[in-house]
Specification:
By secondary structure, the protein is of the alpha+beta class. It has two domains: 4-84, no CATH class; 89-224, Nucleoside Triphosphate Pyrophosphohydrolase (Alpha-Beta Complex). Helix content is 25%, strand content 25%. It is built from four helices and nine strands, in the order ααββββββαβββα. It has a four-stranded mixed beta sheet, sandwiched between helices. The protein has a three-stranded antiparallel beta sheet with strand order 5-4-9, with no helix packed on it. Strands 1-2 form a two-stranded antiparallel ribbon. A hairpin with a 2-residue loop joins strand 7 and strand 8 (164-176). The protein is elongated, with a radius of gyration of 20 Å. The protein starts with a helix and ends in a 7-residue tail after the last helix.
């Protein structure tokens, strides 16, 4: 799985430096903290984004000081006209079924939620569809080729990484494979195993979005597809 830092972290650091730092050297202003999203519902997320926008001291495009702190997004520069929205990153994961009807569970090897269960997946690249991304991530993470991929649902999530919690929108898919061999990606996966759906509980899962997707699968999708 590609680390978040390899996809967007470098660019985010450049924007952080320009926006929060001094115009001359683009460093963080003394005493400023990188804004961190907090766990909460849709209303709380809006508050978090507004707090994030309010931390901007300098325009990340022209470097001019912000005339007044923002009360709510988007960020707007009065000098160069830049408008900057704070949108979530996007990720994709798959509930993978083998011919016996068991699901591939991944035990996470590192934080956040080290030791908790997840389903193979990762962040979507800029030039990918969600379906392409989930196939690639499964191939990279566990060495499986997927035969069929079907959209299940989506759920918002928050992903803490190196002191910043990123807002993420997770896309979940159902997928099927005839392959049984699997290889855990070093550093990403502690262990892999095929589990019956009845053996997985919401408390086993690493993130709220995983629990939401699992609930949707168990309570909505599965009852309507009893033969699968």
């Amino acid at each position: 799985m590609r680390a978040f830092s390899e996809i967007g972290g470098f660019f985010l650091k450049l924007w952080f430096s320009a926006a929060f730092g001094q115009k001359q050297n683009h460093h963080f202003a003394k005493g400023d903290n990188i804004p961190i999203a907090r766990t909460g519902g849709r209303g709380q997320t809006s508050i978090v984004i507004a707090e994030f926008a309010a931390k901007y001291r300098f325009c990340p495009q022209c470097g001019e000081p912000v005339d007044a702190l923002l009360e709510r997004p988007p960020f707007k520069c009065a000098h160069c006209g830049l408008v900057l929205y704070f949108n979530p990153a996007v990720a994709a994961a798959a509930l993978i079924f083998n011919p016996e009807g068991k699901i591939l569970a991944v035990k996470r090897a590192r934080n956040p939620s080290q030791g908790k269960l997840a389903f193979p997946g990762g962040f979507i690249d800029a030039d990918e569809t969600a379906e392409e991304a989930v196939r690639r991530e499964v191939r990279e993470e566990v060495g499986l080729e997927l035969e069929r991929v079907e959209y299940l649902c989506s759920s918002p999530n928050q992903y803490p990484y190196q002191g910043v919690t990123y807002l993420v929108l997770d896309f979940f898919f159902l997928a099927w494979t005839q392959e049984t061999g699997r290889v855990a990606e070093p550093g990403e996966v502690q262990s892999l195993f095929w589990a019956t759906p009845e053996s997985i509980t919401p408390d086993d899962l690493a993130f709220p979005s995983l629990r939401n997707a699992w609930s949707y699968y168990q309570n909505v999708w599965r009852p309507n597809h009893p033969a699968l």
